[in-house]
Amino acid sequence: MDVSGNRVAPATQPENPERSRRNRLLTPALVAICLGYFMVILDATIVNVALPALRQDLGASASGLQWVVDGYLLMLAALLLSGGALADRLGARRVFQLGLGLFVAASAGCGVAPGTAVLVIARVVQGVGAALVVPASLALLRAGISHSGPPGPGDRGMGAGSPASRPRPVRSSAACWSRP
């Protein structure tokens, strides 16, 4: 009771800021975004483990196996910037969902592919889905952990993960600059 006789609610303990930040970071949406990104990036390299089995089961030639690997990477690399632009225009969430749906459907197509040609087509479609997922997932991740105030460890981690942010020595040979 206060001095005037009114009831006063008991004082609550202030919430631990570190704990609330951790709970905000580990939302189901952010976990799903990270898992989607991980799945897309993992798929770029894990198919190499299956190449001997693909050769034996599908009777794939060396060039067919090369297309299985490169069809995915070609579409991912070629459409990555377009996927980012699309995420900016249509919204990162919508593009992430579209890309993930396309990626999962193409993965099912890869699983039931009766031959190398169908597998290559499914891998190309997977690459298109991946090109939509990667930039959208990074935009959603950044939006999910944004905060006001000075840069924190998460901001430094995002910057350190960017290949463009890593300083590298610039090497030039004298032959490049000399004229004959």
Biggest sheet descriptor: none
What is the number of beta strands? Answer: 0
Total helix count? 7
> Helix/strand/pairing class, anyone?
mainly alpha
Query: What form results from the Cα inertia axes?
Result: elongated
Detail the poorly predicted runs.
Answer: 165-180
- Rounded mean pLDDT is 80
The rounded Rg comes to 24 Å
Cα-to-Cα separation, first versus last residue: 94 Å
Estimate what percentage of residues fall within beta strands. under 5%
**Can you write the helix and strand succession as a string?**
HHHHHHH
User: Which percent range fits the helix content?
Assistant: over 70%
Q: What can you tell me about this protein's structure?
A:
This protein is mostly helical and 180 residues long. Helices cover 73% and strands 0% of the residues. The protein has helices spanning 17-25, 28-58, 62-90, 92-111, 116-144, 153-161, 174-177.
Please render the helix and strand layout as text:
Blueprint: H1 17-25, H2 28-58, H3 62-90, H4 92-111, H5 116-144, H6 153-161, H7 174-177
Helix pairs in contact: 2-3, 2-5, 3-4, 3-5, 4-5
Outline of the structure:
73% of the residues lie in helices and 0% in strands. With 180 residues, it is mainly α.
Key features of this structure:
disordered C terminus, 7 helices, 180 residues
